[in-house]
């Protein structure tokens, strides 16, 4: 639940800054936050990192 609130906060702040400062680059912040979250979650798996990534992409 905390992750959801954090992501919504990041999205809200990014939209606000993009409108306020007229810079669409701020809209990439939620994407970067989501990618960072996924990498951290993969790293928390007790198996080796590359084996975990191979397993995730081999799922059908």
Features:
mainly alpha, 60 residues, elongated
Write the layout of secondary structure elements.
Layout lengths: L1 H20 L7 H15 L5 H10 L2
Helix pairs in contact: 1-2
Concise summary:
With 60 residues, the protein is mainly alpha-helical.
Q: Average pLDDT across residues?
A: 91
What share of the residues lie within helices?
over 70%
**Main structural class:** mainly alpha
Low-pLDDT stretches are: none
The beta-strand count equals: 0
Specify the number of helices. Answer: 3
Report the end-to-end length measured between terminal Cα atoms.
28 Å
Could you say how many structural domains there are in total?
1
Question: In one word, what is the shape?
Answer: elongated
Biggest beta-sheet profile: none
Report the C-alpha radius of gyration, rounded. 15 Å
H/E element string? HHH
**Beta fraction of the residues?**
under 5%
Description:
- With 60 residues, the protein is mostly helical.
- The protein has one domain.
- Helices cover 75% and strands 0% of the residues.
- Keywords: Membrane, Transmembrane, Transmembrane helix.
């Amino acid at each position: 639940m905390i992750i959801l609130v954090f992501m919504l906060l990041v999205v809200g702040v990014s939209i606000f800054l993009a409108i306020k400062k007229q810079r669409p680059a701020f809209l990439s912040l939620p994407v970067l936050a989501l990618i960072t979250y996924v990498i951290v979650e993969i790293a928390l798996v007790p198996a080796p990192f590359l084996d975990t990534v191979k397993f995730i992409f081999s799922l059908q």
